[in-house]
Amino acid sequence: MEYTTHVDTITEEKVAWLRLIRSENIGSVSFFSLLKEYGHAELALEELERRDGYKKVKVFSKAQAEDEIAQCQKQGVSLVFFNDVEYPDKLRNTYGPPPILSVHGNISALSRNGIAIVGTRNASANGCAFARKIAANIAEYDFNTISGLARGIDTYVHSSSLATGTVAVLAGGVDYVYPRQNQKLYEDIIESNNGAVVSERPLGFVPRAQHFPTRNRIIAGLSDGVLVVEAAQKSGSLITANYAMKEGRTIFAVPGFPFDPRSDGANFLLKRGAVLTRNAQDIVDGIHNPVPKQFMSRLFEDIDDYSSYEDESYENIADHKDLILSKLSYNAVAIDELAEQCDMQVSEVSSILLLLELEKKVERKHAKVNLVAEMEV
Predict the structure, then answer these.
(1) What are phi and psi of 167, to 5 degrees?
(2) Element housing 253 (H / E)
(3) pLDDT in tens, 279-332
(4) pTM to 2 decimal places
(5) Residue 109: which region, alpha, beta or left (left: phi > 0; alpha: psi -120 to 50)?
């Protein structure tokens, strides 16, 4: 694919890309499958409007796309397309990368060396202090920090690296701040010279539980490595670590007291081979002398399900996963057909399928999915 620059130059091709990815039931994987099949987003859009097999797809209109572009320009948000030079290479080379990123702030921050630092919202005082210190110290080695703007660990990571560079990845639209008490921090990141807020979602998008795992893949994809400070064994932080491991990133973890459930996730990772982390030098050493991939890949062997969320304000996704699994067999089914049977949007089903793939319960090729043969049913 040929890459072009001038990120704020919106061509007719980019309008077609925006229309395609914003169309109902089109996610990253199906977007690139359609682009590969038809060669151009405009041709894919025409086919979606014509084919009976895509009845559940409501194509995003040109007027809607132009309105989103105008709103982005009004708010100072840049749309960075997959074939723009400014699109971060590390993310471009991951599985299911976002076709378009909405970026508020310094776009170049996305392409700098970066360490994702993640952890629980319900962090201890020591955990927050450690996150603050290591986020500040890692800058001395020319690394940005990357996190999710959540309460707890994320907040301390971003706030302590504002001057040196930090990237906040949101599950909702780039203008949707969650939690609301981080509004000032959000503004500080945007106004800093080295920071950025990024999302793959449209402006104003309000996230649901299934959108956070897909957000976490971006955190992992932008990074050179992921540090887990404090996290439950079943948490979004370990989802981020698993995404990172699958992309060949080094996983770091801070040891914690065995009786503290907030340390279960980090201690679990350490037991399985993550790099024990006491300070920024441990991270630098781990990046420059990475653990062999065959050892790092053992971190999540034989783990059935580690994907729950610590924040009770979001619905648990277990019921969605069970529903999807109940509809699948060893014979592949089209994802849009699966979505119709589950009475869900294809984009929502695709988010859950990403989790089920990580758990090695399903396998997906192009626009079809089936149970893996090893699964007992």
Answers:
(1) -125, 125
(2) strand 250-253
(3) 999 999 999 988 777 677 777 766 655 444 444 333 456 677 888 888 888 888
(4) 0.81
(5) alpha
pLDDT-derived band of residue 224, with 50, 70 and 90 as boundaries?
A: very high
For residue 39, give both structure tokens: 């060669």
- Give the separation between CA 343 and CA 361, rounded to whole angstroms: 21
> Using CB atoms within 10 A of its CB, is residue 331 exposed (0-12), middle (13-18) or buried (19+)?
exposed
* Rounded Cα gap, residues 183 and 178, in angstroms: 8
Could you give the domains of the chain?
12-87 (no CATH), 107-300 (3.40.50.450), 318-371 (1.10.10.10)
The CA distance from 79 to 81, in Å, is 6
CA dist., res. 30 & res. 349, Å (int): 12
Measured distance CA(144)–CA(177) in Å, rounded: 21
Pick the more confident residue, 344 or 255: 255
Percent of the chain as helix, strand, coil, to the nearest 5: 45, 15, 40
Residue 279 sits at φ, ψ, to 5 deg, of -160, 180
Residue 93 has pLDDT above 90, yes or no: yes
Q: Which residues contact 136 (CB under 8 A, 6 or more apart)?
A: 160, 161, 164
pLDDT digits (tens, 9 = 90+) for 161-195: 999 999 999 999 999 999 999 999 999 999 998 99
Confidence at 375, pLDDT banded by 50, 70, 90: very low
As a whole number, the mean pLDDT across the chain is: 87
Given a contact cutoff of 8 angstroms between Cβ atoms, the answer to whether 154 and 228 are in contact is: no
Q: How far apart are CA 367 and CA 349, in angstroms?
A: 12
Nearest Cα neighbor of 24 from 319, 340, 327, 322 is 340
- How many CB atoms sit inside 10 A of residue 59's CB? 18
